[in-house]
Amino acid sequence: MLINYLPILIYMLIAVGLLGVIVLLSELLGKKTHTVQKDIPYECGMDPIGDARSRYTVRFYIIAMFFIVFDIEAIFLYPWGVVFKPLGWFGLVEMGVFIAILAVGLAYVWGKGALEWE
Amino acid sequence: MQIIFFILAGVALVTGGLVVFQRHPLRSALWLIVNFFAVAGIYLLAHAEFIAAIQVIVYAGAIMVLFLFVIMLLNLREPEAEAKFMHLGQKVGGIILAVFTVLLLIYGVMQVVLPPGKAAPPGLGNTESIARLLFTDYLLPFEVTSVLLLVAIVGAVVLAKSKLK
Amino acid sequence: MTAWITGCLILLLKLGIVLVGLLLLAAYLVLAERKLLARLQIRLGPNRAGPLGLMQPLADAVKLLTKEDLAPAKADRLIFLLAPAVVAATALLIFAVVPFGQDWVIGGRRIPLVVADLNVGLLYALALSSIGVYGVALGGWSSNSKYALLGGIRGAAQMISYELSLGLALVPVVMLAGSFSLVEIVAAQSRYPFLLVQPLSFLIFFVSAVAETKRIPFDLPEAENELVAGYHTEYSGMRFGLFFLGEYVTMVVMGSLVAVFFLGGWRGPWLPPLVWFFLKVLGVVFFMIWMRGTLPRLRYDQLMHLGWKLLVPLALLNIVVTGAVLLLLRA
To answer: What ipTM was estimated for this complex?
Structure first.
């Protein structure tokens, strides 16, 4: 069974090697002239104001948290999909309850306005 | 087989160390991702393909994204992280605590007697066997998990509520 | 022993052909897109390099390779270097589990036209696509530029949101096929492609796939009239080229995944399997280009609403309904 992963490993090595060669080639072929102005991050031609890495809205953070929760839910759904046929109605009701509880969660999030962007 | 295990275990240990010793929190997070891949590789060696896949999906693909967001959004930087650990007392206390924890861990590991290993049943990378157990014998824990996830959602909203308005 | 060596050589040859084929396809997809978009906008498109502009990808490659490779001051150089490679590599690696034709038998040796048929192939593809997020987020962060960081964060939030609906849309496919193996999913569609029984899943998957590739109408991470070029603002030369390549390889890969999960993979009458697979992938990709030529960009709130308020609930509902219908049909 693990022999199945050998082609992937080789494929991975070749792919990464190929990308490495491409980057290396551009490193060799491209010219390099550094000036202070050239190394300034682009800000529409102006000198950058302040630090680029400032704080951003908490909404992105909330989206990431919701993603974890629903991703874990999805993880439960995949194995269920595999044994869905043998389990029959019992399995469907079981998963129906699971999905329903999380749907309540989604409705709560929705109702609280955590999915709004303004 | 054993050589692969030792390589993966070595990678896991080294990257685990790097997570702790990096100065920049973002670098730590990235080494942790490499660490998760090594652990997933070890699961794969144990013929637990499903666990290996969800290790990458959930830990490397979801939880670490949240970590990354936090580091990026809070704009954590090297100097801040450095300044907090300058006291001598903190250093000494940290070392004592670390040594104690390691000793405790070694003691704990020595105490464990592992039952003789059983190979996973062939077939669907034991997804099927896990699924069968999960959705029959462990029905209640499975349903309770959904409640736990619900609590997590509510918690996330409550934590962020003041910011959302 | 000789059998083992020939096996290895065949494997290496196959892997090489797959990789080069993917890269070439991606390169020519760029040209095809430029040509098509031009036609949609009543222009001619690139037609100077070679006949019909067919040498354009080569010219682009030479240009990108010889351009100066810049990194802004105060950028995190190592991460800045790695980020585009992450995007390109994950896209290339997903293709490893995609079966692109029926097994070939040459001289009594069976050559499967898939790099590796994994039991957990579907999860492998999802896992890798969730790793692709890092390329965008880290590329944006490491540039030390405001536009890049905004684009990176936007891109990461968008990708994780649509990954959810992308994954959930595949649960009915798993239920129908009873397997994660892409080879078996194709085998399960021997009588009819899953598109016919799962049109809703197909739609959700396709929309999410386009969102994952960050193309119009979902190109907010690189929206040029507000974020310059988004997460790859500071990238130049071949590193920008890798981001670019990654996007087009992702298009090909998403096209192949749509073909495998919903269009019956390489199955089809009259034509050889390999040709069918190619045609299906091109069909899906053509549709993506057509969308780019037709639709305006979404606003960020609309983007998030589409993902979280429409696609995710719809996908969950679809799973339950599919389950009920399957059981009713069996009874």
So the answer is: 0.85
